[in-house]
Write a structure and sequence with these properties.
By secondary structure, the protein is α/β, with parallel strands linked by helices. It is about 45% helix and about 20% strand. The chain contains seven helices and five strands.
């Protein structure tokens, strides 16, 4: 049996409001095993979580999570408790890392996001999920 036919497609929710990860970066990954669902608001993102229980991870701007309160990540965790939540942040400071920890974020990526960083983070969390 051919490996491409048996490979799993991983769905990644990308909640974007500022185009922090341009579609060109997503396409440059050249990965057939990734399916990105891109939403513009937290409400759309939460709805996507309800509609796609197979979500592999969620990537979202940290400031969007903070604007909507800690409850936003809690809502996601209530729907998909095991799914990694990755924050995008313009600044990595001790305070932003502390806040991300309080919001139970799994990782923070600093903007601007490049193809290599995005691919490494995706692969890391997919690999970890397979070990569970």
């Amino acid at each position: 049996m051919n490996e491409a036919a048996t490979s799993t497609v991983h769905t990644i929710l990308l909640i974007e409001k500022h185009n922090n990860i341009p579609e060109s970066v997503i396409h440059s990954l050249g990965r057939n095993d990734l399916n990105f669902i891109i939403t513009g608001t937290m409400q759309e993102g939460i709805q996507a979580c309800k509609e796609h229980s197979e979500m592999a991870m969620i990537i979202m701007p940290m400031d969007l999570a903070m604007l909507n309160g800690v409850g936003t990540v809690d809502q996601i965790r209530n729907i998909l408790p095991e799914v990694p939540v990755i924050f995008l942040s313009n600044y990595l400071t001790i305070e932003s890392i502390r806040l991300a920890t309080l919001m139970e974020c799994d990782e923070i990526i600093q903007n601007p996001v490049d193809r290599t960083t995005l691919n490494a983070v995706i692969m890391k969390h997919i690999k970890q999920s397979k070990q569970l």
